[in-house]
Specification:
This protein is an alpha/beta fold. It contains 23 helices and 22 strands. The strands form four sheets. It has a seven-stranded parallel sheet, sandwiched between helices. Strands 17-22-21-18-20-19 form a six-stranded parallel sheet, with helices on both faces. Helix 13 (392-399) links the parallel strand 14 and strand 15. The radius of gyration is 27 Å and the shape is globular. Residues 614-625 have low confidence and may be disordered. Bound molecules: adenosine-5'-diphosphate and magnesium ion. Magnesium ion binds at residues 290-291.
């Protein structure tokens, strides 16, 4: 049971003033459903604004507050921006530029003839001045807007900086008193504030100590939880699985296994034969051949008379795994089924029956495969693809399904630097596929200035003449997903104009059916070009797609670029990746792109990326999906994880039941970071 002190943090956001049905969705998009989420919604950065009397006083690139009079609304046709032409007291013009839906609000907020305070970053656009998506607009009768230092929060459509700031302030007022879980000596040495103060400071300004403390809390919670899992796993009995090799012998693979694959399969086979449940991670770069290793593991389970499940992070990926495995299993007599959230009615019923009576040997699916209604006759092995998208907690939910704890094999293609493996996977055993299958061609990677985009489009046209397909990855434009999608749609429109109907678009806001339909067209070769935001990062496997264009490549992390690039180079044809870069690049950005050209080794890229970025960014970048952490940045993980790990180990050695004073505090920490599955593993927890 969650300690009472934490209850106020877990109350739904609805209790905050101003949160009604309209704000719920935008908040949800950011993962903000409870008070605690809002309190932990930390600023990306802070802007220091300068109030200026007129635009002559301001420099291009500066964050300013200025009073402007609206002269004209200028809508452009189609998907172009909406511009509000304004004038300062000296008659200098400045365009306020809006894309997408924001235009509607702008129209209302900025009536022609009225004077407004406007806060934002002054940019130059051609010969004229502009502010793109001003951060604040308010009536000029009120006092000038915004403090001089202001937090900039990640936003979603329908939210403004002002709104979110207000909600955060309310959430911070509701913080309870919590006991200290950090070892006093460490707290002292690091000069970290207590938990409440750390949260307040982190919203007030770029206080590194406060941010570090909050990150450390998260790392400590994670380390502790993983140790609890390990401790409990060791004390449990699973079902030893000994396969006789009969099914594996029936596989007709068109290739010989690599040494790394054979070694990994042997390691897994060794684990499965043990009575204690396997907890193993299979790490292998994109294209390293993890699927056949997973299949071999599952066949061992089936040979031993049990069932196996493969859990994929997305519906598309589940489908693709299912198709691949089904083909590989032809002629073996092994029954395989696909179960996703979209299966309803009869079809679903019959799969559920098959799992219950054991006529289905292997099931592939999304998290739908561990819903309550799904029961297995004898589930003995769970394979989890891209485990970080689930986290260990969900894995344990699944683990509780069988009578015995199933063996677990997690697979990841995210090249994680060695230092981070521990953070992500705790104390799991690791098999590494460090050898690519033979015959892979290097992907010809080039860095091209965006000024040459017309040449790139020309190259695309020639590429299509060869009958091959291509990807076009659109940039992450700004802080908000909406803007990214607007940019992708604009690019899609121009490419469609050039190449006609067989261009398809995929992005995160499409309905799943529409997304799947586009993907299917592309996979079937009926569409030549797939334009996408980064949603294609995990998933698609189309060997005939041999060209990838990535716009504003400098904005992506190296690990992410590597993942994206891994979508090409899957067939026997030579593949190319064009990294479009902006006009002005920082030295680091230049080095990072050069590294992409130089190597295709994901592990090396990950290590060097960490090096290159060093402590450069004050607040650290949010690493979407790369780590199981919401607060801790990569740099903080590097710096603080070893400490957190040692601290957790020490605490476990002294008080493995978490029953002393610090142990009790640590329990609260586990609940706070929703690692309470860790607590539940404690006897009587
Ligand atoms: P991963 O899941 O690790 O990204 P896959 O399992 O999808 O990689 O394998 C990528 C491609 O390589 C597939 O087309 C697969 O059939 C092929 N492949 C796997 N193992 C080998 C091998 N030993 N030799 C040749 N090709 C292989
Ligand atoms: Mg794979």
């Amino acid at each position: 049971m969650r300690p009472e002190a934490l209850n106020s943090l877990f109350v739904e956001v609805d209790v905050l003033d101003g949160v009604g049905p309209k704000l719920r969705r935008p908040l949800e998009k950011l993962g903000l459903t409870r008070i605690k989420d809002v309190a932990y919604h930390l600023p990306d950065r802070f802007v220091e604004r300068r109030a200026v009397a007129n635009l002559d006083e301001a420099g291009v690139g500066e964050n300013i507050i200025v009073s402007l009079t609206v002269r004209e609304h200028r809508a452009s046709g189609g998907r172009g921006p909406f511009r509000v032409i304004t004038e300062d007291v000296l008659g200098n013009h400045c365009a306020l530029t809006y894309f997408g839906r924001a235009s509607y609000t702008a129209k209302k907020q900025l009536p022609v003839g009225e004077r407004r305070w406007v806060a934002g970053r002054l940019d130059q656009y051609g010969q004229s001045l502009q502010i793109v998506h001003p951060e604040h607009v308010s009536e000029s009768t009120s006092a000038p807007l915004g403090q001089l230092r202001e937090a900039v929060y990640p936003l979603s459509e329908g939210l403004t900086q002002g709104r979110i700031t207000g909600l955060v302030q309310q959430a911070l007022k509701a913080l309870p008193e919590l006991p200290e879980w950090i070892e006093p000596g460490l707290l002292d040495r690091m000069q970290w504030p207590d938990w409440q103060e750390a949260l307040r400071e982190a919203h007030r300004g770029p206080h590194a100590a406060a941010r570090d403390r909050l990150a450390y809390d998260e790392l400590l919670a994670n380390a502790l939880a993983l140790m609890l899992v390990r401790q409990s796993n060791r004390s449990q009995r699973g079902a030893p699985l000994a396969g006789d090799g009969s099914l594996r012998a029936k596989l007709r693979l068109p290739f010989a296994l690599t040494g790394a694959q054979k070694r990994s399969i042997a390691e897994i086979e060794g684990d499965l034969a043990q009575p204690s449940p396997m907890l193993r991670l299979l790490q292998g770069d994109v294209g390293a051949g993890k699927t056949v290793v997973a299949l071999s593991a599952m066949l061992i389970a089936v040979e031993a008379g049990a069932q196996a499940a493969l859990l994929a992070p997305t519906e598309i990926l589940a489908r693709q795994h299912f198709e691949t495995l089904r083909k590989m299993l032809e002629g073996t007599g092994v029954e395989i089924a696909l179960l996703t959230g979209r299966d309803k009615g009869r079809a679903r019923e019959s799969i559920l029956m098959g799992l219950l009576d054991g006529s289905i040997d292997i099931v592939v699916g999304t998290h739908a495969i561990f819903q309550d209604a799904v029961e297995y006759r004898n589930l003995a092995l769970v394979v989890i693809d891209e485990q970080h998208r689930f986290g260990v907690g969900q894995r344990l939910m699944l683990a509780r399904k069988g009578r015995r704890t199933p063996h677990t094999l997690a697979m990841t293609a995210t090249p994680i630097p060695r230092t981070l493996t521990l953070a992500q996977y705790g104390e799991m055993d690791v098999s590494r596929l460090d050898e690519l299958p033979p015959g892979r061609q290097a992907i010809d990677t080039r860095v091209v200035s965006v000024e040459r985009i017309a040449d790139v489009v020309g190259a695309l046209a020639r590429h299509f003449e060869t009958g091959q397909q291509a990807y076009w990855v659109c940039p992450m434009v700004r802080d908000s997903e909406t803007d990214d999608i607007a940019a992708a749609e604009a690019r899609f429109a121009t490419l469609k104009e050039r190449f006609g109907e067989d261009v398809v678009l995929v992005h995160g806001q499409l309905r799943p059916e529409a997304k799947d339909a586009a993907m299917e067209l592309f996979a079937a070769g009926k569409a030549r070009l797939l334009v996408a935001t980064t949603v294609i990062e995990v998933g698609v496997d189309v060997p005939n797609a041999t060209l990838m264009v990535i716009e504003q490549a400098e904005r992506f992390g190296l690990a992410q670029l590597h993942q994206l690039r891994g979508r090409v180079g899957r067939g026997s044809e030579k593949s190319t990746c064009l990294l479009l870069r902006g006009n002005t690049l920082s030295e680091t950005a230049r080095q990072r792109l050069a590294l992409m050209r130089e190597t295709q080794d994901g592990f090396r890229l990950a290590e060097e990326d960490l090096e290159l970025r060093g402590g450069g960014e004050l607040l650290g970048t949010r690493q979407s999906g790369d780590t199981p952490f919401r607060i801790a940045s990569l740099e903080q993980i590097q710096k603080l994880l070893p400490l957190a790990h040692d601290d957790a180990r020490l605490l476990m050695d002294r008080d493995g039941g978490l029953s002393g004073t610090r142990g009790e505090a640590a329990r609260q920490l586990l609940y706070l970071f929703e690692r309470d599955w860790g607590v539940q593993l404690l006897r009587g927890g």
